[in-house]
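Think of the structure tokens as a kind of shorthand, similar to the way a musician reads notation: each symbol stands for something richer, in this case the local conformation of the backbone. In the example below we present two proteins back to back. Begin with the first one, reading the sequence and then the tokens, and try to describe in your own words what changes along the chain.
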Amino acid sequence: MEITRQCVVGLTWTLKDTLGEVLDVLDAPVQFMVGGNDLFEAIEDALQGHAPGAVVQVHLEPEQAFGDFDEQRIFLEPRTAFPGEIEEGMVFDGAALPQGVSAAIPREGFYTVSTLYPQHVVLDGNHPLAGIALRLEMKIASVREATEAEIGRGSAGAGFFTVLPTAPDSGALH
């Protein structure tokens, strides 16, 4: 079976930046729904018409992937608003940010603690891969028809490339 809209594809891949640094390797196949919410449109387009065993390479510009880096999604907040055991790299759901942070921070999306200062915490609401052009080499392990449940959910259950808005009408991806 060849890949068409509303099918499920099992993929392995190597994800690199444009300098060739490996960002992620998926050795065991994971199933994604083509024509749903699991993959970026550029990846789905590149997969069309291919069958199991094929190797597909795609170049993704930031706007086709995780969006451009947005300085407006960086926030300097008082350290006292956060738990004492806070560390760089911790991630907070915007809907569950601690009391005491600015009301100007959108509550949609996720925020990574990027820098800690004695009196402040820097929160970054950008996706870690925002602003980065990506190279993706995928090997198609399997292709099957999507079930009615998968079509209804728009997903085969995987979410690596799930497209979610970070703020209403922002067009940014997370």
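Once you have a description of the first chain, move to the second and do the same.
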Amino acid sequence: MPAEPAVVEARGVWREFGGVVALRDVDLAVREGEIVALIGPNGAGKTTLLNVLSCVLPPTRGQVLFRGRPLPCRPHRAARAGLTRTFQDLQLFGSLSALDNVLVAREARGKGAVPRGDADRFLETVGLARRARDHPDALPFGQRRLLELARALATEPMLLLLDEPAAGLSTPERTALAERLCGLRDVGVTVLLVEHDLELALGVADRVVVLDQGVKIADLPPDAVRGDERVIAAYLGVA
């Protein structure tokens, strides 16, 4: 039998901005049920790759496949197909409660209204059931990050793309986030995670992909990343 197609796959993807090459011939596949961490030093091209995979940017060359088929480069089409993206900058509705933020998320992405009971469940999944009536401004920053995650889950994605979800979080909040991410895998959510926090990334990922200056230099199990000479050189700037 043929292998199950990857949920998302980049084949020979290049992305150029004028004369600057941000991604160079990148191949990447994320399969169902995986958490894949995408790491690398600043300027490695991680967010650019996430933008290409989520149809925010078209590739200059190469191809992105979703469930084995090309996906038109329109973010709303990607969302409707089952690909949901979070951003480094939180995109919450400040005038709505946490519960209402979740209720409108699914409808805003063209998937119809989410039932109230499901919205409660998504908040519970990220540990915010007790803050359902609170507005985002009343929540600590870490909990606002979790609310953004609950909004993403409300779209019932086939693939969840997370861009720096631990940015700005305290150590306890990062620990809680890691537990939530592992819980998502346990219920069958596929995740591609861009993260600067190496300990968090290695702690939750099934596989780690490393970019350096727009080039994929490694695709390894987490326990193999720490001792990989290419990865050490990329992060420390030494051969």
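Compare your description with these statements about the second chain. Strands lie at 8-17, 20-30, 35-39, 61-66, 69-70, 83-85, 159-163, 190-194, 207-212, 215-220.
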